[in-house]
Amino acid sequence: MHPQREYRILFQEMRKSIFDLLERKGKQPVSMLTAYDYHTACTIDEAGIDMILVGDSLGNVMLGYENTLAVTVDDMIHHGKAVVRGAKQAFVVIDMPFMSYQASIEDAVRNAGRIMKETNCQAVKLEGGVEYADRIKAIVDAGIPVVAHIGLTPQSFNALGGYKVQGKSIEQAKKLLADAKAVEEAGAFAITLECVPADLAKLITERSQAITIGIGACSDCDGQVLVYQDMLGYTDGFTPKFVKKYADLHSVMFEAFRQYKHDVENREFPAKEQTYAISDEVMAELIETK
Is 7 exposed, middle or buried (0-12, 13-18, 19+ CB in 10 A)? Predict the structure, then answer.
């Protein structure tokens, strides 16, 4: 291979780093989508998406749970390995599931280390602000990059009284400002803002040196993330207000499955072009054989 061609291929396959992402703050927004399997990660990566989140949302969209609470570290590692193998350039972040970091700093560091070591991801993400800043600091001190997650934190939906917009009252808004400051000071290089009023999300973004990644926040955030099943219309269930549907895969798949059922039941599939031939001579000999 020509040296220049080889160099270009190697350069194209270099994975994005924290510094690449931080350099974009205030300039060009960062794109992020979830993925939970190899094939989807390959496609997202090929499309040039900057970051991939292996979210504990896999509990809902892949495993059929009502919420994310039942997801385990083993679940995250299993799906995370597949995603990392598929993504060659995107920066891969893996969620720390419920009770993998809440109980103690030791649990947090141990589980974050296990996730990174066994998946080869580039960062972990955990929910919570001021109350979990010590966990973030300990994980960062252990050499593991952290994305913080504040606002609506799905793992705490019971304590929050459901899936509600956070930060609308003065008390909640001040709490979110304090949370953002605490997680940044603890070493988080990025902060996910979920279901946060637009003006408040913009203020947090302006005050923070970390990159902010919005989901139900505002376009002034330094990046955006969506669950890929939501943005592809992969489900006919509830769709949050903040989701923009870029396709309607549910309808496409539904019609394809119905057509397949029809073709099978009416012996229209497989047709001749989907089958393999054998010579008449061989068949004649087989039929004569007893």
Answer: exposed
Residue in 17, 26, 79, 25 with CA at minimum distance from that of residue 54: 79
Q: What is the largest CA-CA distance in the chain?
A: 89
Q: Which helix (H) or strand (E) holds 34?
A: strand 30-34
| 194 classed as catalytic | yes
State the DSSP string of 67-99: SSTT--HHHHHHHHHHHHHH-SSSEEEEEPPTT
Q: Which of these is catalytic: 23, 171, 194, 288?
A: 194
Calpha distance 175→152 (Å, rounded): 12
Q: What does pLDDT average to in each consecutive run of 10 residues of the chain (290 residues)?
A: 47 82 97 98 98 97 95 98 98 98 98 98 98 98 98 86 89 98 98 98 98 98 97 86 95 97 98 96 91
